[in-house]
Amino acid sequence: MSKRVLMKGNEVIAEAAMRAGCRFYFGYPITPQTEIMHYMALMMNKVGGTFVQAESEVAAINMVYGAAAAGGRVLTSSSSPGISLKQEGISYIAGAELPAVVVNIVRAGPGLGGILPAQGDYFQATKGGGHGDYYNVVIAPASIQELYELTVEAFNIADKYRILVMILGDGTLGQMMEPVSYRDNEPMVIPDKPWAVTGRAGRTEHNTITSIYINPDDLEAKNRELQDKYSVIKKTEVRYEGLNLEDAEIVITAYGTCSRICRNVIRQASEEGIRVGMIRPITLWPFPSEIIAEVAKSEKTKAFLDIELNAGQMVEDVRLAVNGCKPVHFYGRMGGNLPSQKEILDQIRSIHKEVSK
Amino acid sequence: MAIVFQRTEGLTQKPFHYCPGCTHGIIHRIIAEVMSETGILDHTIGVSSVGCTYNNYEYFACDMVQAAHGRAPAVATGIKRVHPDKMVFTYQGDGDLASIGTAEIIHAAARGEKICTFFVNNAVYGMTSGQMAPTSLLGQVTTTSPFGRDAAVQGYPINVSEMLATLTGAVYIERVTVTDFKNIQAAKRAVAKAFRVQQQGLGFAFVEFLSTCPTNWGKEPVESLTWLKENMIPQYPLGVFKGKDLVV
Question: CATH number of the domain that A78 lies in?
Fold first, then answer.
């Protein structure tokens, strides 16, 4: 660690991408992520990279597809309505197994919705999002420092598995400022890409990048290959943070901005003598089901409380992991509103009352 | 014995799947010959689109990328920005380019993207079985204009070459056809010129090929060529729309 500066979340994503060796950015303006574009427009020029303001999100993601096929380290960023438009390209990227990083600074929906923070894109992000049977790796940072580190990591994971990695932030993370430390020389893991289209000079065979397999057996085999890759990722890339899991009676599940509010609530609850812990998924896909299942089985755990900025999306994955072992409660806010500490504490008090009967 | 004619090395050994009388095969061969004869085959990356030529990445011997419907110019932009020293082309039909892909082609041209687009206009959707295309002629019977294209209901054909010629970033635009030897030779010269424009970094180059679709037109191959000459050329005149005096 060499440099500590105060920066805005969106700018940190761009700085991290640049330091991770990303030299190609294609995007289209949308609030609340536009600072990523502004920063990339300056930065790519400075480091001899490419910045293209595309005519639409659809074009931008297809430029990403082309640049990734050509072997480039490539980024695009957008916010919810724009990410919906990118789903076509995201599905093709999954099918053609191309490495790319997509940032979604989520805003409230559905439709044009609003520009304030939300987590309503959880389903879309973690269940594929576009057509067909596929997953993206989905990373949910909760601080500006994590935005930096996980953006760098996103590029390495993308290249390692030839997969699309989505950074799922929200309007709060994108817009807020916090101190961030960078390393001067980010360790870059850019593997050889013998599959990329580079012109066939030096090769005997031409390389082709495609996602179409007209023969059903070929397509099924391709799907099996993808599923095998996803199984490996599920085993190796799950990340989460556990807090007070040893003795918690109530375990909160929350990610991103929500988890920060919950962290303060846990302290307040303990002052009242209520032991609250938290599982904060850092990867939303692969989902940290195992630790949730393990904690659910513990005698000490009486109940779960899932907090989200939506009507209850991740809570479905929490319930699958808990598998009926313990009650799972949910509290969410929508429309761009955040829950206050008091609102969450009230939920905890009422659950505590129930489990103490 | 001297070899006087053989398969160009710009094509793979895979036989084409195109219908009898379809001119995609001739257009493929022209592009492949130019790549081979001008020595750019090892340094070219092509982009296949969606339609009858979705899998021409199996036919062209250069590196190839298959793109989503209409998005080939955006995909080519991504490729070209990573490899500015390589030749990049898209191969697109009229449904792909003139309907779903209008935004991508217009903006690639407007940016002066240093790529070539080979646009095959047969006035119909081929692969999905003969629906009306933006390029279908007035009165043309298709599976989705069964009473003939009626301007009052379905609007008018789009002349893509003329439209793109209004953009400064497009430096070379020519419309050709492949109905006979003379036109095939002219088409080949246009393809070679388009690649030279790209090689010299001058901007966007575009060649439109008037092409036949005997299967979906419901016509014999020879009759199709006649229909093209008598009906398509009056709507889509051959010629250079941009870069006539460009010496490359």
Answer: 3.40.50.970
